[in-house]
Amino acid sequence: MNEKSEIRNHISKILVVGAGIGGQSVAIGLKKAGFEVDIVEIHKEFNVYGVGIIQQANALRALDAIDVADEAMRRGSPYGKVKLCLAHGVQIGEAGTPPIGRFPSHNGISRRILHDVLFEEAQKVGLKYRMGVTVETIDNQPDVANVTFSDGTSGSYDIVIAADGVNSKVRKLIFGEFKTSYVGLSVWRYAFKRPAGLDTGYIFFNKKHKLGVIPMTADLCYIFVNSAEGDNPMIPEDQLVDKLKAYMSAYPIPMVQELIPQVTDAKLVNYRTLETLKMPAPWYKNRVVVLGDAAHTTIPQLGSGAALAIEDAVVLIEELQKEGSVEEIFERYMKRRHDRCKMVVEVSETLGAWELLEYTDQPLPEGANMGMLMGKTGMALTQEI
Ligand SMILES: Cc1cc2nc3c(=O)[nH]c(=O)nc-3n(C[C@H](O)[C@H](O)[C@H](O)COP(=O)(O)OP(=O)(O)OC[C@H]3O[C@@H](n4cnc5c(N)ncnc54)[C@H](O)[C@@H]3O)c2cc1C
């Protein structure tokens, strides 16, 4: 990102709603490019949960555009392709985005650390966060967005960027109600001390669920389990520890077995159902534009949702520095992003649908090959954005 890049259009004052991965990324890049940026975050304090996030090579390439890829790799754990294995450990394949230039296939990182890396970069460029604040109303005119905030203040902006996640309030205010779809799967996550032999990411396949062991830092890793919990997927808190331990017990590999005693605290079991959402085009109206999960929420079967949010940010930053009307800029942004995001959401849905069939003892469609589909999509994600 060129700090001194000349702003050739008439946009100067920008509001970013949501200080998650996408919101912080876009705000940092825009601030560096010389725009006046306000960022509001609904939570009074950040409370980022401690499990990890997989950053594939394309996510690192996008983070590099806002100058934080090296710090993310330094504080995370770069690794190669993910080894795909049967439940007892025999390797049957590998998956992941191929390396892109100096960026490895993957960087595992704690979500908290990624958040810190972004936040620290934001401080360096003088970005001021308004915590515990959200938008109340947006009067979205063709030439300006007049916004009132929950703290009683108001402001006029050249554009408003909705980076407020899957349940985006801005999206609802401007575009109406969109509902997520539950895909029938759940994910369990827990952070662990990193076992000595963990040399890369692993996914182990059982007939009823799958388990991943993902490096997070030099000393930490996390485990995820994907399962199908049936029609009533809400699990009472007092069952979380025992259920996660039972899932892990089904993988007779020392690396997994030795971690089981560390699962002790239900509050640290991050359990959630998996939801998906594709906002139909256009992702913009007058002065409001949507990015990240607010526009496209993917289930994590490709570990790429955050990568898409960061790439959205980079493309929007680039387009905002080019000439054109706001509508032309937003249209170019959406054109560059739409099909790629749709591909990730839909391939992830397909992978999830195949998992669900397996976990519920139903036959897979002819030719279904998870490793091959993951490999093909990983390759597609290396293409320039
Ligand atoms: C189980 C699971 C595992 C995943 N694993 C991976 C992975 O390994 N790799 C990967 O790349 N992606 C992964 N993802 C996806 C990734 O977490 C998301 O795609 C990413 O967080 C989206 O970033 P975002 O900034 O769009 O939204 P968010 O990260 O959700 O950020 C939205 C921000 O907006 C704030 N906010 C919400 N409402 C308002 C409001 N009204 N006003 C102001 N602020 C508001 C929120 O508090 C939050 O800070 C995973 C997702 C899930 C569910």
Automatic annotation (TrEMBL):
GO terms assigned for molecular function: FAD binding; monooxygenase activity
SUPFAM superfamilies found in the cross-reference section: FAD/NAD(P)-binding domain (SSF51905)
Annotated source species: Emticicia aquatilis
Coiled-coil residue windows: none
Keywords: Monooxygenase, Oxidoreductase
InterPro entries: FAD-bd (IPR002938), FAD-dep_Monooxygenase_BioMet (IPR050493), FAD/NAD-bd_sf (IPR036188)
FAD-binding domain location: 13-346
Name this polypeptide is given: FAD-binding domain-containing protein
Stored PANTHER family: MONOOXYGENASE, PUTATIVE (AFU_ORTHOLOGUE AFUA_6G14510)-RELATED
